[in-house]
Amino acid sequence: MIEQQINEWTKALSARYQKSPLPAFFEWWWGELAALIPDHLKSRWMPPAPSLWLIPTGDNGQDLAIWRWARDAQQVDVFGADEPVSALAMRWQGLLDTFEFGAPKVVLCLPADGVLDRVVELPLAVEANLHQAVHYQLDQLTPFEPSAVYFDQRITRRDVDNARLEVALRVAPIQGLMDWLDRLDSLGIAPHIIDRLTEASEAGQPAREGFNLLPEAKRPAYVYARAQLNWRLAGVGVLVLVGVMIGSLLLRGHSVDRLEGQVAELRSEAQEVMALQRQLGEAVEAANFLTEKRAQAPVMMHVLDEVTRLLPSQMWLQQMQVRGDELTMMGYARGSQRLIELLNDNALFADAAFRGRVTIDPETEQERFTVQAMIDRRSQDAVAARSGE
Question: Phi-psi bin for 375: left (phi > 0), alpha (psi -120 to 50), beta?
Answer without folding.
Answer: beta
